[in-house]
Amino acid sequence: MKAVENNNVYLTLDDRNSDEVILKHNLEALVNARNAAIEETAKALVSIPAALVRMKWQNRREIYAWQVKEEIYGAALAEVIARNPQLKEKILAHIEASYQHIRSRETATLRLTRRLSDGDFRSACVNIVARDENAEKQT
Fold first, then answer.
1. Closest Cα to residue 134, out of 106, 111, 110?
2. pLDDT tens, position by position, for the chain (139 residues)?
3. Cα distance between residue 81 and residue 92, in whole Å
4. Which domain holds residue 40?
């Protein structure tokens, strides 16, 4: 058996190490995947409702779990209200307050999204989601 003089065994046909070649191929694959994602996003010139329907369909398994949870929560609240009618107004007021809070946060997020898309804001200067427009006008 012949002794090996050079222990630098290359798994490629060129003079570079195989790790460098693998790294190059992985980097190329990542760049191609990123470019494909950008191209797909740029091609997706669909209406917002159509995009929302598509997202709902793609995430239907996660959404179903939330719907089941909502139904269980609603049934539990209905049972609590049926057993303790004096708590009905308090529970409904709390639910309404929570709903209004979520709605105001969503409205603020949509307002910021519109301003970002219109170029009124840069993403680096947006740090608070629920900024009040009335407070902005007063300052």
1. 111
2. 555 555 555 455 555 566 777 788 888 888 888 888 877 776 666 666 777 777 778 887 877 887 888 889 889 999 999 999 999 999 999 999 999 999 999 888 888 877 777 776 665 655 555 555 565 555 5
3. 10
4. 1-45
3-state secondary structure (DSSP) of residue 59 = coil
Note the pTM of the prediction, 2 decimals. Answer: 0.42
Sign of the CA dihedral 17, 20, 21, 22?
positive
Q: How far is 36 from 83, CA to CA, in rounded Å?
A: 57
Closest CA to 116 of 125, 128, 107: 125
Burial class for 81, CB neighbours closer than 10 Å (0-12, 13-18, 19+)? middle
Q: Do residues 35 and 3 both lie within one domain?
A: yes
How many other CB atoms sit within 10 Å of the CB of residue 115? 13
DSSP 74-90: HHHHHHHHHH-GGGHHH
Total domains, the chain = 3
Contacts of 73 (CB under 8 A, 6+ apart): none
Contacts of 54 (CB under 8 A, 6+ apart): 46
